[in-house]
């Protein structure tokens, strides 16, 4: 144990963890990887209480209490701003709930912290926002919005939103579908991967209403040469350069033809709000959110894998064979991501929750999901993974819904605990303790979610 920490204040440990987590870990846990003596006392002081399960506390983990910097208000007063820790700011946007985290202003990107994902159906005000370009101007008459399907089809199909709703009324379907950014969980990667540093909150489940893309493709007549979609929206490139597009992704025809891939015009029973891509957007549940093109203008059916912006190199691709984290990569070792990943969250309590002394029972709940798959089991642990208790897991309301789970946990004493949650998918695959399969753009980080709780 280095004397760098011994005898110093709790603040210095937090700072050390913030600055250099690996070194902090070595200093606090020492070479034997067990919390004891001064290290244990310093850790207890830093997390704010005794740690009943300290013997099980694993080396290599940053305590959840220190893992996330608290958010600061969007427009803090000058003195407060000077003192405020460097954390994400709070989004201020018309109609959005107070508490969404502003990750970027241009393009506008905002995350829903896990504890705000406590609704079975995510309402508009809590729904995360991810833009790659500018937000296009809203239109006066949404029903007059036009989009087309062209390329490898017998006849180009051009439709207004009004025509979509009236001509295909009998094909309209609705479902509770996951919308999850391909980079969800990215902040778990060490070394940090390129892109928005999402926690687990680039996810929302809304009820989406629309017409299956398959119905429109069949109306246009898909040629045998059709391989892939190439999708375009009306959002201008950030630079304002009209010859560039903000993002253009595509999917194989097999995904375009399933009934859950829809051309949607309603979110939670209302016209899709402008910021979420209204009047019309694609919803491609279970796969990366980038395939759910907002402000839809064109679906180009292609005779090859689409090569638009966001399709090439390491964009939305994951390594076939693991690579050295932070090391050089070879484009040939990457494959296009399809299904999103297994994740679970605790939504009933925020990281850093304080409970009254003597609290011994607590009802907790959350969500779990796995892209194209379902979640078979959810377990929680309060002793750093030594023992696990099975939660009650609800059924999805339809394919690509998330599953909500509930549980009552029991604490043996007062002190500092971390509630860990871990999902198991229908194939028996579990979430890892640490994000694996590192890749330059940070896809697929799905380590278990941890919430620190201090009793007394
Ligand atoms: N036209 C357009 N569609 C888009 C995007 C975009 O930048 N432009 N971002 C995509 C990405 S990366 C995600 S994760 C989802 C986010 O949808 P939301 O903002 O409604 O939550 O929209 C997708 N559709
Ligand atoms: Mo995304």
Descriptive labels:
456 residues, binds the ligand Nc1nc2c(c(=O)[nH]1)N[C@H]1C(S)=C(S)[C@@H](COP(=O)(O)O)O[C@H]1N2, binds molybdenum atom, five-stranded mixed β-sheet, 3 domains, alpha+beta, single chain, Immunoglobulin-like, 8 helices, Sulfite Oxidase, Chain A, domain 2, five-stranded antiparallel β-sheet
Structure description:
There is one protein chain. This protein folds into three domains: about 15-60, no CATH class; about 140-335, Alpha-Beta Complex (Sulfite Oxidase, Chain A, domain 2), CATH 3.90.420.10; about 345-455, Immunoglobulin-like. A hairpin with a 4-residue loop joins strand 2 and strand 3 (about 110). The protein is of the alpha+beta class and about 450 residues long. It has helices at about 10-20, 20-30, 35-45, 65, 80-85, 160-165, 215-220, 255; strands at about 90, 100-105, 110, 130, 145-150, 155-160, 175-180, 205-210, 230-235, 260-265, 270, 280-285, 295-300, 315-320, 335, 345, 355, 360-370, 375-380, 390, 390-395, 405-410, 415-425, 450-455. The longest helix has 11 residues, at about 35-45. Helix 1 crosses helix 3. The chain contains eight helices and 24 strands. Strands 7, 8, 10, 11 and 12 form a five-stranded antiparallel β-sheet that branches. The structure holds the ligand Nc1nc2c(c(=O)[nH]1)N[C@H]1C(S)=C(S)[C@@H](COP(=O)(O)O)O[C@H]1N2 and molybdenum atom. The site of molybdenum atom has 6 residues, from loops.
